[in-house]
Amino acid sequence: MTMEERKERGLLWTDTPEAMEAQKIARGLAFEFNHLHPSETEKKMVLIREMFGSVGENVWIEPPMTLTFGKTVTIGEGTYINSNLTLVDDYKINIGNHVLIAPNVTICATAHPLHYKMRMHGEMYSKEVVIRDYVWIGSNAVILPGVTIGEHSVIGAGRIVPNEIPHKTLAMGVPCRVIREIDERDLVWER
What we know:
Layout: H1 3-8, H2 17-34, H3 41-51, E1 54-55, E2 60-61, E3 65-66, E4 73-75, E5 80-81, E6 85-88, E7 93-95, E8 100-101, E9 106-108, E10 110-111, E11 125-126, E12 129-131, E13 136-137, E14 142-143, E15 148-149, E16 154-155, E17 160-161, E18 169-172, E19 177-181
Parallel strand pairs: 1-4, 2-5, 3-6, 4-7, 5-8, 6-9, 7-12, 8-13, 9-14, 12-15, 13-16, 14-17, 16-18
Antiparallel strand pairs: 10-11, 18-19
Helix pairs in contact: 2-3
């Protein structure tokens, strides 16, 4: 079984020379993106489309950002990603339409086993992360492997998200948990 097959099945895997080469290319593109002058918006959009697996219309990403592969990430239309996004994207990360991601967010599709004997050679496991449409993720949030965040949900700032978050909910706390459903009362802006 190849490492890609192991990854797909949720088994432990390690990097291969081919994967390391792909990472160099992706990180090179990210380096170039991160060092563009703010006025170079056309070049920025070309690099965004080159870095990721697929990107919808009207996507904006503020540099800097860090990624592993890039091609494992899909981003839907109208999504805005603020600065210092970190993508641990050894496996699939799907970001929906009209998602707002605040500064300093980390999204991890990959982690290491708990016991040191299980990571002696860099062993990892991966699980797909899905962020559905119209989600807002607050600053400094960390989304862990295997998490799905339901559409229209809000993740509070500074939260660690280890579990699925249902649609239309406000999730806060550490670890992150559902506080309440988002409903019509949230259409009124309290100043």
